[in-house]
């Protein structure tokens, strides 16, 4: 429906606005004041009340401004024309849905055919709905609402289930974490107790050994004579081949621990054995290459030369600890090694043609003595370190050197010429010097100039000799044999 409007002669100054507050109560009073922030008109009474509550609002009286503000409805829609601010919007042009006031229509849109009143436009867009349609619509909305509620309940249930599962996992992880911590604590405490017990026992044993050693030395009425002739009173043999040995033994080195246990190198079976004082096996470890000469470097530590069929170039360091043999470290040298001895932090090692001095970390100090035509084998050092003894199996000589490598004595004996490489020399802790022959043991004076005694052996090819200064017993190891021989001497 198209509205036909007559020409109006009303101007903006003729417009009278009602008080917005009074109008809400059905009372028509002239709004003589206008608040821009509130977009409302007030009568004199309402303006006083407004001013008390909103002192920061700017209120203007009618006539103070040449242009009225553009008012809006409560929901934000325009009530007055933006161009003719005193005119309400009452019409709409259907072509472009532009809102018009009466002045806009009379001045600019009189010729437009599709201009209708806003009230008619609103009525025409409202479609009547019968009760059945309304009921169906409400039921559909109710079903949709029920579905939304059901989905919400399902989501709530799922959320609760997820929460319980996650909480259960957190509790389980915490329990396992605590169990692992408890287990770790238990194992650590157990190992610490074991280590403490082991260390305590080791220290206690060392203390007892020191006390016993001091007591035994206090009972000695005189200084040991290193040149006293050692004679044999009796002999016994003890089996040292073990059930796991594949061959007869070749005992190339013998030492003794602080507990009186024997440590023996077995070349043929590629191992080092620990035996008690009754020669019962306590421990046995494999060496990657066959062990040869061996020397003692402390109360429970030894150095062992290891070899293969071609050369000898590795020194193993081992320790006896609680009836066990423990490997400590190894040194790899650049030459073959036949014999080894130790004194005050230095190792003395022989190759076939030279005698070398090394530190314990493998640093070569010097070449002590060298002869390209020699066949040096065994080596030993006097207790005071002033004399170094070296055997030459090619010439059958025993050389005595100073710590600077000067030769002070040369003793030759056909018995010293042996057919195979063996560490055929032992210097006891009490200073006695023993040299192995093919079927005998020679005791040599400490100057290395004369033979003091010869101990004949019933077996051939002795490979090692060790003098136990504590018991004054002489132990001899052999090649291709299951036994060692223990000799009781006149010092027993």
Automatic annotation (TrEMBL):
This is B box-type domain-containing protein. GO terms for molecular function: zinc ion binding. Keywords: Metal-binding, Zinc, Zinc-finger. CDD domains: Bbox1, Bbox2. It comes from Dreissena polymorpha (Zebra mussel). SUPFAM superfamilies: NHL repeat (SSF101898). InterPro entries: 6-blade_b-propeller_TolB-like (IPR011042), TRIM45/56/19-like (IPR047153), Znf_B-box (IPR000315). Residues 17-62 form the B box-type domain.
């Amino acid at each position: 429906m198209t509205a036909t409007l007559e020409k109006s002669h009303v101007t903006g100054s003729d417009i009278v606005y009602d008080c917005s507050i009074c109008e809400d109560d059905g009372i028509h009073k002239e709004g003589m004041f206008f608040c821009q922030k509130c977009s409302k008109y007030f009568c004199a009474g309402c303006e006083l009340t407004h001013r008390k509550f909103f002192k920061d609002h700017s209120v203007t009286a009618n006539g103070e401004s040449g242009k009225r503000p553009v008012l809006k409805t409560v929901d934000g829609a325009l009530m007055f024309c933006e161009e003719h601010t005193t005119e309400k919007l009452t019409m709409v042009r259907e072509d472009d849905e532009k809102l018009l006031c009466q002045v806009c229509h009379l001045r600019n849109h009189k010729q437009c055919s599709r201009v209708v009143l806003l009230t008619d436009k609103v009525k025409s867009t409202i479609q009547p709905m019968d009760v059945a349609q309304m009921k169906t619509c409400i039921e559909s909305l109710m079903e949709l609402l029920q579905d939304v509620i059901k989905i919400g309940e399902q989501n709530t249930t799922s959320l609760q289930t997820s929460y319980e599962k996650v909480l259960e996992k957190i509790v389980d992880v915490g329990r396992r974490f605590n169990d692992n911590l408890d287990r770790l604590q238990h194992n650590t405490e157990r190992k610490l107790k074991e280590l403490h017990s082991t260390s305590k026992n080791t220290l206690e044993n060392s203390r007892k050994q020191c006390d016993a050693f001091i007591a035994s030395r206090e009972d000695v009425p005189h200084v040991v004579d290193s040149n006293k002739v050692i004679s044999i009173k009796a002999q016994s043999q003890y089996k040292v081949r073990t059930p796991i040995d594949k061959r007869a033994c070749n005992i190339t080195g013998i030492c003794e621990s602080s507990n009186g246990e024997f440590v023996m190198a077995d070349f043929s079976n590629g191992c080092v054995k620990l035996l008690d004082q009754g020669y019962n096996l306590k421990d046995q470890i494999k060496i990657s290459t066959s062990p040869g000469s061996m020397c003692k470097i402390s109360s429970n530590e030894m150095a062992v030369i290891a070899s293969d069929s071609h050369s000898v170039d590795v020194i193993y360091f081992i320790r006896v600890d609680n009836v066990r043999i423990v490997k400590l470290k190894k040194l790899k040298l650049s030459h073959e090694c036949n014999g080894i001895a130790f004194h005050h932090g230095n190792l003395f090692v022989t190759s076939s043609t030279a005698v070398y001095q090394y530190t314990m970390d493998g640093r070569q100090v010097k070449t002590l003595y060298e002869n390209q035509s020699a066949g040096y084998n065994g080596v030993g050092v006097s207790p005071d370190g002033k004399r170094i003894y070296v055997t030459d199996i090619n010439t059958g000589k025993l050389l005595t050197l100073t710590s600077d490598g000067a030769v002070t004595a040369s003793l030759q004996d056909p018995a010293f010429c042996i057919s195979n490489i063996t560490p055929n020399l032992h210097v006891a802790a009490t200073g006695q010097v023993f040299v192995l022959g093919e079927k005998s043991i020679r005791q040599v004076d400490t100057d290395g100039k004369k033979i003091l005694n010869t101990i004949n052996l019933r077996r051939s090819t002795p490979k090692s000799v060790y003098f136990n200064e504590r018991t004054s017993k002489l132990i001899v190891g052999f090649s291709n044999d299951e036994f060692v021989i223990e000799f009781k001497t006149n010092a027993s």
